[in-house]
Design a protein that fits this description.
54% helix; three-stranded antiparallel β-sheet; mainly alpha; globular
């Protein structure tokens, strides 16, 4: 009897570990998330780094009328790293490894990959040196993400988008 209980406990623990590993591979694991509270409803939303990047791209597309962005990882990661170093807490979910030639964030790479999988970013040019930002990211932001960001966070996102537009020109 004691053996059966122990086996079930070990099996349950093993199942939880497998579930967490699978969720991590699918991008739903224990990734850093930013907790944002909305004053009106007093609810708390969890924003993934992918949500933050999607919002920045939507504002980049809408406010700066930029439809293309470089695919150069060195440039993209360096720009995001510099913005994070300035203390922007919206970018706190992005961890950077600075031990190589340029700062690298696997979280940022994953967010960009998620944007490509959903069709918001495309590499349709022949040289594959530019991302085409699809207009669907704007409608995704309006329908899904906009309500997750309080007014002060939207202002932060606009500043990040403006800085990104300036640095990537």
């Amino acid at each position: 009897m004691h053996k059966t209980k122990l086996s079930k406990r070990v099996l349950a623990k093993s199942h939880d570990t497998e579930h967490n590993l699978l969720a991590h591979k699918l991008g739903r694991g224990s990734k850093p998330r930013l907790r944002v509270s909305r004053r009106k409803s007093m609810t708390t939303e969890l924003l993934s780094p992918t949500d933050v990047i999607a919002a920045v791209l939507a504002l980049f597309y809408r406010d700066h009328d930029l439809k293309k962005m470089t695919t150069d990882r060195r440039v993209l990661h360096s720009v995001l790293y510099q913005m994070r170093q300035k203390g922007d807490d919206l970018l706190s979910g992005f961890r950077f490894d600075t031990s190589d030639i340029y700062p690298y964030s696997s979280t940022f790479d994953e967010a960009l990959a998620n944007m490509q999988i959903t069709g918001h970013l495309k590499r349709s040019n022949p040289d594959m040196d530019k991302f085409d930002i699809d207009g669907s990211v704007e409608s995704y932001f309006d329908s899904t993400l906009n309500g997750k960001f309080p007014a002060e966070r939207l202002e932060q996102l606009k500043k990040i988008s403006a800085q990104l537009a300036k640095d990537l020109r």
